[in-house]
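Regression test case RT-17, inverse folding.

Input:
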């Protein structure tokens, strides 16, 4: 949508006589309509989140394509008597979209119901709110038009009075800085300005203050020394032209940087109309000013793969990529448009996950995606194959089925802990937007409007790797086999067990919950191997790979991969093991290796390889061959399957009633047909066994082991008919 100057000017001139005689209520309604028009120009490029204060409302307006750090605090115009939150969102949307920066716009209280100092108090509270959100003064830009343009200077004078740090800059659009109306332009441009009259301005001034000469009402009469740089816009035909010219001159005289743009034949606050003839040059000036004072516009962010992630692109096969899945089942069907809006917000909070895989000369790397991916309806099995070409466009996907939302991640992006934080945060944002509730940033839900910290983006393997490296040598484990699903279908069996019963059982055997589940799975595999391999001498070790969340041992806030593994084992060739003996073996192995010293040396071996001078200069295609060979020889041969337990999940109190269940599914391995993901929520443990073969033998044996332990098990399956 484009607005042309001649058309807008003729419309404003036509309505000018009528506006002068309108009631304040009618004027307010008309201004809101202008705000709606401005919002419509950029509706598709921004996201809006309201925020309630005690005495007024505000709103975050965020670009879908965020290219800058920091925030603009935008104060709307309206003669201190007009301007709702909807009006404020109008130009805030233009700023956010055209500049690629977050904008916060408060709808400060209006006169005459709330005269001076209400507007200034609300502006100050909004500034303090941004400081509380973690923004430094140097990350805050003030912008305003008309009364809001004057108010940003009043706010700076107030901050000086309070001894507070000032923002990094000010953008004033036709700022109303002299409520006495003393400038010659009030008379000279009386007939030229199609939008404003001196009489109307004096009426507004009388509603707002009894002392229009007070510097905190008319900043032109204040001490402007020490104010940050200013960028000023004003129309050559507007009655308030001298307000801006006098402000510019006084700023320069006070030793402040100021740049003034006077647009010939334009009217009051013309910038807000986003005129086709002026918009490009106006926003070019604003963006240049932001580059110099707030933050430069950036290209798409990129980052190196973390140490654990480097193996996954190399290990890929034609019909296999290492993906895992987390899902939340809610109490009501998913509203996809609302989820889309929530996803748009969430991806900006997770720059290490909202990425695509790129191929470099020496390594793959991750590059930020310009916008969130489309949400897909789930029409196939969980973790259906994702072609590698799609990973290079987006390394995760969001799926919806009835009241379930699922996120499937390429493992090079994050691990189960990071993925769970993403799912929690996305679900929290969805519930806030859907039901208008407030969900605090706690229990793994991140503040959706906060800037990501550098600690969240770090490769913690490099930070904590020691000098001593552990050997990678391990015996080859028994691998199950069966009839492959020809079309890549993944069979899923979910076993649901009361958490309290599992804990009682674990205490009985003197092990943790994870150790108990590992022992039960090893028992099932040993039983199945005994059936399939009658001769004991030909049997192989039974080994289950247990991921370990390293964040529990090392002080890391990384949202990327930061997990190692421990592989408990038994050797059936030495004889039959009782379940108690298997539990003891698992517990002993965990006790030996689940410590900072052993695990640090284990991932230090991978870090040392990465730092090898030879490997660094080796072209990527050769690296891939070498790493795939290592993966095939070591990566999947050391265990029968992976059993990953995320533990008991906690959610914020306001969020919990809307979540029925959570599920964690890890993808099957390239060479082994089974894996198992576990998560507990609201008293129920969900054990998700996935396989790429037709035969459900392992799940049957595992179920029987749980039954023998006295655990009540409910079972779900997506097994399809075999005809």
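Golden output:
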């Amino acid at each position: 949508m484009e607005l042309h100057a001649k058309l807008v000017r003729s419309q404003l001139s036509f309505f000018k006589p009528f506006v002068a005689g309108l009631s304040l209520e009618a004027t307010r309604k008309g201004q809101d309509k202008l705000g709606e028009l401005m919002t419509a120009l950029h509706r598709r490029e921004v996201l809006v989140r309201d925020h309630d204060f005690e005495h007024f409302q505000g709103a975050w307006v965020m670009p879908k394509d965020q290219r800058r750090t920091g925030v603009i605090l935008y104060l709307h115009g309206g003669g201190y008597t007009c301007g709702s939150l909807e009006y404020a969102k109008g130009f805030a949307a233009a700023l956010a979209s055209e500049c690629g920066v977050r904008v916060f716009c408060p709808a400060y209280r209006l006169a005459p119901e709330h005269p001076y100092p209400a507007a200034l108090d609300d502006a100050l509270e909004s500034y303090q709110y941004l400081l509380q959100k973690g923004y430094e003064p140097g990350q805050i830009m003030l912008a305003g038009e008309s009364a809001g343009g004057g108010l940003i200077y009043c706010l700076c004078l107030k901050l000086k009075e309070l001894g507070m740090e000032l923002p990094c800059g000010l953008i004033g659009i036709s700022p109303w800085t002299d409520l006495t109306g003393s400038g010659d332009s009030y008379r000279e441009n009386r007939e030229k300005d199609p939008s404003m009259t001196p009489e109307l301005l004096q009426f507004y001034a009388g509603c707002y203050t009894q002392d229009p000469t007070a510097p905190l009402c008319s900043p032109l009469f204040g001490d402007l020394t020490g104010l940050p740089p200013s960028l000023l816009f004003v129309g050559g035909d507007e009655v308030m032209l001298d307000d801006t010219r006098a402000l510019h001159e006084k700023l320069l005289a006070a030793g402040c940087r100021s740049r003034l743009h006077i647009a010939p034949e334009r009217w009051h606050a013309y910038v807000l109309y986003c005129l086709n003839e002026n918009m490009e040059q106006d926003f070019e000036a604003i963006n240049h000013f932001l580059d110099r004072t707030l933050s430069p516009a950036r290209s798409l962010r990129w980052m190196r793969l973390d140490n654990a992630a480097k193996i996954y692109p190399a290990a890929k096969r034609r019909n296999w990529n290492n993906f895992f899945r987390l899902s939340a089942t809610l109490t009501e069907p998913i509203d996809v448009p609302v989820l889309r809006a929530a996803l748009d917000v969430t991806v900006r909070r997770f720059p290490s996950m909202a990425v695509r895989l790129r191929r470099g000369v020496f390594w793959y790397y991750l590059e930020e995606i310009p916008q969130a991916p489309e949400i897909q309806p789930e029409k196939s099995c969980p973790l259906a194959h994702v072609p590698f070409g799609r990973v290079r466009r987006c390394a995760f996907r969001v799926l919806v089925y009835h009241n379930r939302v699922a996120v499937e991640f390429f493992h090079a992006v994050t691990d189960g802990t990071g993925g769970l934080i993403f799912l929690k945060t996305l679900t929290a944002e969805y519930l806030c937007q859907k039901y208008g509730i407030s969900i605090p940033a706690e229990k793994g839900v991140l503040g959706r409007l906060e800037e990501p910290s550098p600690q969240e983006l770090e490769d913690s393997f490099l930070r904590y790797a020691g000098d001593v490296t552990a050997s990678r040598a391990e015996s080859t484990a028994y691998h199950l086999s069966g009839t492959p699903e020809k079309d890549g279908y993944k069979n899923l069996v979910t076993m649901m067990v009361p958490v309290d019963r599992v804990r009682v059982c674990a205490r009985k055997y003197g092990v943790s919950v994870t150790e108990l589940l590992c022992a039960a799975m090893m028992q099932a595999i040993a039983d199945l191997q005994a059936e399939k391999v009658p001769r004991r001498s030909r049997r192989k070790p039974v080994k289950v790979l247990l991921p370990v969340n390293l964040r529990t041992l090392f002080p890391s806030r990384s949202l990327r991969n930061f997990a190692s593994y421990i592989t408990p084992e038994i050797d059936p060739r030495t004889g039959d093991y009782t379940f108690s003996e298997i539990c003891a073996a698992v517990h002993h192995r965990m006790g030996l290796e689940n410590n900072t010293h052993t695990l640090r040396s284990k991932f230090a071996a991978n870090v040392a390889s990465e730092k090898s001078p030879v490997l660094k200069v080796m072209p990527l295609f050769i690296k891939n061959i070498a790493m795939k060979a290592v993966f095939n020889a070591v990566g999947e041969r050391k265990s029968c399957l992976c059993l990953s337990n995320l533990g008991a999940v906690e959610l914020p109190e306001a969020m919990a009633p809307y979540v029925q269940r959570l599920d964690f599914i890890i993808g099957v391995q390239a060479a082994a047909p089974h894996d198992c993901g576990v998560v507990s929520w609201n008293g129920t443990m969900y054990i998700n066994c996935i396989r790429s073969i037709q035969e459900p033998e392992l799940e049957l044996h595992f179920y029987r082991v749980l039954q023998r332990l006295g655990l009540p098990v409910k079972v779900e399956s997506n097994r399809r008919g075999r005809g």
